[in-house]
What does this fold into?
Amino acid sequence: MIVMSPGRERLRDRYKPDPKLSFIIKALYTMAYGLHNMVQDVCGQGGVCAELFPFNGSLFKSYLMNVTFTYGDEELVEFDRRGDPPGRYNIMNYQLLPNGSYDYIHVGDWNNGTLLMWDDLQYPQAEDRVESVCSKPCQPGYYKVHYLHCNTIFITTLSSLQYYPHCNTSLTPTIASLEHYPHCNTSLTPTIASLEHYPHWNTSFTATLSSLQHYPHCNTIFITTLSSLEH
It folds into this structure.
């Protein structure tokens, strides 16, 4: 494990881009290419000029509709008369791997009406039923961490219990832990988890509250007595 000093971290070390990030990148490129072409046609090679203002949004839209460029290695970005990009789909097949595990395998593409397949499909057998781990409940003391394609790892909460002093790290439920952190009750005992808190008459706090509730009545009697004496 490589430990980097604060301020010297690099995204390339453990960076995994979101699959939908490419849409934002292509949108920014489209805006840049469209604005560049519009400025060149209106102002020439000298850059931004006075003729560009006030900015004509309808004219800019027409330039965006006519933008065409290559993204990445071979993806052509263009737009039809309605402003929609061509439809592209990755064809993923859920396959049994040689090591006995399952995963989604990229077996083909559908690109703007053209189907291209480069790998064979695996079809499920009647006796083979694959159960998704995403729908399985966690065992007591564990929580789920989801990754791309719903790959799931069950991680124990023991590492997180050290931050809560009320939790018993031996995963033995206690009244103190259940009162503040219900997830510590890994035995799922409802009788302990549903403890009710109510005042007892033999406590000083309850006696004080009981005394204070009579204060308004005493005050009313005192004022009434004074008024009677005055009259």
Observations:
- Residues 88-117 form one domain.
- The mean pLDDT is 72.
- Helices lie at 11-14, 21-43, 57-65, 158-161, 175-180, 190-193, 204-212, 215-230.
